[in-house]
## 1
Amino acid sequence: HRHLLGIEGLSAADITGLLDLGEEFVALNRQIEKKQASLRGRTQINMFFEVSTRTQASFELAGKRLGADVMNMSASSSSMRKGETLIDTAMTLNAMHPDILVVRHHASGAVELLASKLDCSVINAGDGAHEHPTQALLDALTIRRNKGRIEGLLVVICGDILHSRVARSNILLLNTMGARVRVVGPSTLMPPGIERMGVEVAHDMREGLADADIVMMLRLQRERMNGSFVPSVSEYFNYWGLDTKKLAYAKKDALVMHPGPMNRGVEIDSIVADGAQSLIREQVEMGVAIRMAVLEALSRNLPNA
Ligand code: CP
């Protein structure tokens, strides 16, 4: 592959290959000396039109650990503030001959559009409510390390499914890898026809979490709600927030995940987020390793490689 625009289009073998490569980088990242040379001489530009902590920081570290020259560009300090279009901004950067562009944008499809116009490899770091492929890959690596497999597990994704690119990418990946996926959340935050993605749908947490091996919580994305349905925080937490009482509906050895950023006391209680069943910190560690794996895999297809 030349780009990574989504999980859609990746085979189980592609995904397993990236997870295996990611596993090698987990070991490397725990060493004192972390520097590799596979991207030496290459230029990576991170173009973020939406805020980010984890994705941007880990793509920067990942590129640097593989020896690339990495430049970070944020939309708030770019000439888009003066009216330059997305395409013109991207073509301007393209003229500087980057090898890899990592893009986050608030519009679904924006990253694919850029990939069709640019000469370099493009990686989707999250586009609107469409896909966030590296998040799903790092989640899969975290699950595989802790459960020893993905196939046959019941993964329950909870909360604001409607606005979540993380949910979409995870559903695609988990289905491809043979897991069972269930989504649970308020009907107002459930995309119409979600069943067609091959998931079970539940309408309360007791029913939804029954037999879960993995409980994946999502942030309530109030910034994407445009006033249509903005639930009150206390009511939301009461029905859908993961606390110890609701977690007890899942299997005894269920593990808890959250892509971050977390809103404590909204979708997840601190006792659970910081508890023994939580994988949230490990997800962040896997984020660096999996982004190194993606960069390394794409670098093998760069011109003159
Ligand atoms: N999970 C995730 O994408 O986090 P950031 O928005 O901080 O990158």
## 2
Amino acid sequence: EKGGYDHFMLKEIYEQPKSIKDTMRGRIHLDKGLIALGGIRDYERALANARRIIFVACGTSWHAGLVAEYLFEELTRIPVEVEYASEFRYRNPIIYDDDIVIAISQSGETADTLAALEIAKQKGATTLGICNVVGSTISRVTDAGAYTHAGPEIGVASTKAFTAQVTVATLMALHIAHFKGSINTSQFNRYLFEFQSIPDKVERVLEKAAESKVIAEIYKDATNALFLGRGINFPVALEGALKLKEISYIHAEGYPAAEMKHGPIALIDENMPVFVIANQGPSYKKVVSNIEEVKARSGKVIAIVTEGDKDVKDMADYSFEVPECDELFTPLLTVVPLQLISYHVAVMRGCNVDQPRNLAKSVTVE
Ligand code: M6R
């Protein structure tokens, strides 16, 4: 059932063009210029008028929440908070009845996320779910929601569930922004047109998978790694670090690139691989100077760049190209090479990729 792949994780990485497309299917209507999200239809107005949206989640799903924060704030101008469910539940959180609390969970069974939702409900907030498992506990206890259609995810390391979560968050943010008028119809249609080309662009990233193996071979013996990104790609840096540590047991940390000089820069020497998301976009020039800072300290830079890039490619030790797309959709592309590199590093180190030590697919105890 691994479909010819050595591991479920690799199969699931390769399934992403399809799982993203499946998650978009029946929801994007270019001809009519609309997004249909049946599950949240009754809550569109509540979302558009929300005082605040709070995402609660754990692990990779929390990273998807951080991406959602950028999407929702940029497109809908509604204030967003993203909370670790485990912290939120024990903090006696301040929740208003015109807040919307959205749980993101692949399994729909994560104990802390479920408990966070129960508290939000008690305090009178509307609760929504973004789950992958149909009929899961979280999908049942929420007022409404929108499923990801990633299909079963077997590998403990989440890959296609993450990109499907980001896909649903993008659809929701675009839809609510259009509904409330924070983006106009021509902006909305332009985003829609561009967004539906993402699965093909993910496919193009996967066509270059061989390069991720070359990079993995070179850095597989590292004991530490840093992942840097800015803006909407800062959460992708966190996700890249989580992927590497959970399956290869290499200590890795993700940071917003500009935070480096507030501490982690002290770690950089010739043995430290630094993975930098340096795609073209509003942060590009800033990221270029962060790369210069790393190189000045003999760090090794592996950069994720936009096709046709020159400046970063000249500076970096290795680079991996992803197709150009609107900044808001870039996490769906930039995360893929990081998933692939982690996978290959873990295989080369002889780790149990699909079932890493000490980890369970679904954390149903706190
Ligand atoms: O099922 P959930 O999305 O609620 O799970 C949340 C985390 O346990 C999960 O994302 C975990 O961090 C993964 N192992 C990451 O790859």
## 3
Amino acid sequence: ADTAMYQAKESIDKNHLYYQEKMRNRLETNKKIKEILREALENDGFKLVYQPQVNLRTGRAEYFEALLRLKNYNISPGKFIPVAESSGLINEIGRWVTEETIKELAELNQESINPIKISINFSVKQLHDAGYIDFLEELLKEYDLNPGLLEIEITESILIKAEDKAIEFLNKISDLGVKLALDDFGNGYSSLKYLSFINFDKIKVDRHLGKMFLDNDQKETMASLINLFHSMGLPVVAEGVEELVNYNLLKNLKCDFIQGYLFSRPVGRDKLTKILNHNFIKDINL
Ligand code: C2E
Ligand code: MG
Ligand code: MG
Ligand code: MG
């Protein structure tokens, strides 16, 4: 019995040490990432890559989603955005993304005949950036940009965490003429309630929800969801589409846009200009 007790205690101690070690490693990693982010803000260490959202009627990439990358590190935003949020660096990073995108939009729309629209991601923590709306308004003026070319993507969590404040903040953005998209719909609470309070222009259906409905032969459910949004006057983007069979299904269901590896991974600024007038659907039908 003594031996068993001893072994149990030893195992608990080991476990304890293991978790302590794991926790310490995580804290150290986060500290490192925080330093990397701070350095990137100071030394131009961020860049944006752009993923096309293909209009299924025209085959053209009418919108691009700007996605943040570190120039010198292979750390995904899934890892560094949470650190940016918890360390308070997100506001400054968010402003950098906003300014960079507005600059790009101003430049691109001088070069191209078809209007190019770009969406950026907005973290719930940025609701605390009280000066953001003035900042945004100033930039739009400075670059003389049609605000309708910029879209801000927000996830459902923004609506749960700070209801009234969030609604006011977002409607101010919408009043500037900037578009609002609800990102990752179906990944969280999926409250339809907020759709009437906030002037959304577009719905992006989360990759996992779309995949579940299409893979599990719940096409009727996907059809109903798309129809519901259409009845509210909202175009629908299917996120993360990788397979041809799902493109065909979504096209039949009158989904408006597809964003996914099937058409293109996010691309750098240099490649962006090349695919502006590309017909993605022609590729597929070949
Ligand atoms: P998100 O806004 O939902 O962006 C879409 C993510 O799905 C991107 O990942 C994109 O590369 C990925 N994706 C696109 N098509 C496919 C596909 O066919 N299959 C698969 N498996 N994935 C696909 P990424 O770039 O790693 O970004 C992850 C998340 O990080 C974003 O999700 C967004 O929530 C956040 N994020 C990225 N950039 C920013 C930013 O500038 N600011 C903030 N606040 N968040 C950002
Ligand atoms: Mg997004
Ligand atoms: Mg998304
Ligand atoms: Mg997503």
